[in-house]
Every structure is written in structure tokens, then in C-alpha cells.
Model the fold of this input.
Amino acid sequence: MSPRPRREERHPDLLNAIKDSAWKQITEFGAPALNLRAIARDLGIAAPSIYNYFPSRDNLVTTLIADAYNSLAEWQEAALESGLAESLSTKLFLLGIAYRDWVVTFP
Done:
């Protein structure tokens, strides 16, 4: 019988694996249905392991919200850095397109 794999071997980046699983749950069932035990089950880890990264469900949700805002900001910054934004109206247009593209990419 081989020894149980170390946590790092199963999930080298458990923090992001937890967040990815949470996003998958939210996409499929909605934010109110987010469940830490279901995330643990999806990742094949013990539920208490999640608490090493997120002290509570609310802390995980807050982290996901911050990640979403940061992602949107990156898309909008990239749109403005494209060099096409000369006038204010063009900048607003590019921001709007970037917002739409982000929403379509991450529903």
C-alpha cells in the first residue's frame, strides 16, 4: 500500500483550486448555494482543510468578489492601454466594450 500523497502533490495550488471550485459552484447553482463541504468533496480533501485558507464561507465569498473586481479592472486597463483611446468618448466606449467582453467571458 503506497503512502497517502502529500497535500502539495494532490493540489500544488490549493488556494486557487478552492477558488476555482467555488466559481464552478456559483456558476452552476448560484451564490447562495455555495457550500464549503461541496468544494472539499469536489477537490477530494477534508472539509476542515479549507479553513486553513478561508476562515469562513463569507471570507471566501469576499475573496471571490475582490478577485472579480480585480479581473474586471485588468480588462478595462488593457482596453485603455490599447492606444486607441484618444478622446473621452472613445475611452468610455472602450471601457464599455471591455466590460461587455468580460461579462460574456465570465458569466
About this structure: The chain has a mean pLDDT of 88. Residues 34 and 67 are 16 Å apart (CA to CA). The longest helix spans residues 57-80.
